[in-house]
Specification:
single chain; about 260 residues; alpha/beta; 8 helices; 8 strands
Length: about 260
């Protein structure tokens, strides 16, 4: 639930002001160099042509940092499944998402989880780069093996992964239908901006790593001003992803009323 104790006196920054702050704080390189970085993903769901086993399959066996694909036991090729691509926090790895396997199994969701190429996702350091290419490869790996519902493709992340979700997602709204950001620190998208995926943001009221005001007073208002459909959940807690927030965000992701609104 939204925390009703939110500080109503907190400043509500404009998109221009917030992006200016993000650029300054992250010490981004000059605009000409940033323009060379392409945030667009090319992988798209199609009829799978490779075999897949249920459970967890490693992606990039020979890589120190690879990823994995998790396929629930209920998966059937003739019934396209929802897909969530999950991005870990700074210093983490794809293995952290094993905590989501049970709920993905219960709800029939395919889960893809890449490792960042470095300590964390490249946008934190100023520009999109190798992480975009690897995410694209992980998606292609998944689409070649699984029949995926194109109306239910979510990009999700925690902490630095949440910031990356809200930075990469707006340029790929023709692929991702939903963006789930759990305790993000910023949103710094690159042009082009494509489509309007639905957005879910959650944040702990006592977060000592990335203060809740970042979501409450900057990120959420910014997306709302840009015309996105945003659901915000502020909970009593720290820099964490709780089972309650996971359940709420997955329920939001699977809500058929979103995909098929009444005419």
């Amino acid at each position: 639930m939204v925390n009703e104790s939110a500080d109503k006196a907190a400043p509500r920054w404009s998109r221009r002001a917030f992006l200016g702050l993000a650029i300054s704080a992250l010490q981004l390189k000059d605009p000409a160099e940033r323009a060379l970085r392409n945030p667009r993903l090319t992988a798209r769901p199609d009829r799978p042509f490779r075999r897949v086993a249920t459970g967890q399959t490693r992606i990039g066996e020979g890589l120190a940092r690879g990823g994995y694909l998790f396929v629930p036991a209920s998966y059937r090729e003739e019934e396209p499944a929802p897909l969530i691509l999950a991005l870990h926090g700074g210093g983490g790895d794809a293995g952290r998402w094993s905590a989501l396997h049970a709920i993905c199994e219960q709800q029939g969701i395919v889960l893809a989880a890449p490792d960042s190429r470095g300590h964390t996702w490249d946008r934190v350091h100023g520009s999109f780069g190798p992480d975009v290419a690897f995410i694209d490869a992980v998606l292609r790996f998944s689409f070649e093996r699984c029949s995926i519902d194109p109306t239910r493709i979510g990009l999700a992340g925690f902490s630095d992964g949440a910031s990356y979700t809200l930075s990469l997602g707006p340029s790929n709204g023709d692929l991702f239908t939903h963006l789930m950001a759990w305790s993000p620190g910023f949103s710094n998208p690159e042009t082009p901006i494509v489509g309007r995926p639905r957005v879910f943001v959650s944040h702990g009221s006592e977060d000592g790593v990335l203060p809740v005001a970042l979501s409450r007073s900057a990120i959420v208002p910014m997306f709302e001003m840009d015309g996105y459909d945003v659901t915000y959940r502020e909970f009593v807690g720290r820099h964490e992803l709780t089972s309650e927030i996971i359940a709420q965000s997955f329920g939001w992701f699977l809500d058929d009323r979103q995909a098929h609104p009444q005419q």
